[in-house]
Write a structure and sequence with these properties.
Protein name: Archease
Oligomer: single chain
Low-confidence stretches: none
Helix content: 25-40%
Mean pLDDT: 95
Keywords: Calcium, Metal-binding, tRNA processing
Family: Belongs to the archease family.
InterPro entries: Archease, Archease_dom, Archease_dom_sf
Number of helices: 3
Pfam family, one: Archease
Length: about 140
């Protein structure tokens, strides 16, 4: 699993890649944490379960990242480790995940930005010709 961020006007793009769709989604989540602080500074202490469903993979990525933003805001937490499964059939796509993290400590985590949500801008979820999955979108900061 790998992750990266990219510039996008006043917002930030997040991108995850992996051998599986689940790895790419985990990478996108890690990239979103990196917009806020160094993911390595976040201890994966406390597990939080998250489930999402959407009609397609692209909307599932937006729902997944938005669910993480919601949990960060309401639990006052940051996340650094993600385990998930993604399933799809004719009825749509489903995700079941556990995100591990810890409560925000401003002095230690030094948050650089607050992610307000995931957007449809530059939204892309696909498997490349090399077999590697990519999951990306822009997050509003």
């Amino acid at each position: 699993m790998a992750w990266s961020t990219f510039e996008h006007e006043a917002d930030v793009g997040v991108c995850g890649t992996g051998d599986t769709l689940a790895e790419a989604f985990a990478g996108a989540a890690t990239a979103m944490t990196a917009v806020i602080c160094d993911p390595a500074a976040v201890a994966p202490r406390d597990p939080v379960g998250i489930a999402c469903a959407a009609p397609d993979r692209e909307l599932l990525l937006v729902d997944w990242l938005s669910a993480l933003v919601f949990n960060m805001a309401t639990r006052h937490m940051l996340f650094s480790r993600f385990e998930l499964t993604v399933e799809s059939d004719a009825g749509g796509c489903r995700l079941a995940a556990t995100a591990w993290g810890e409560p925000v400590e401003v002095a230690r985590h030094q948050p650089a930005a607050e992610v307000k949500g995931a957007s449809f801008c530059e939204l892309r979820v696909e498997r490349g010709t090399d077999g590697v999955w990519i999951a990306q979108c822009v997050v509003d900061v």
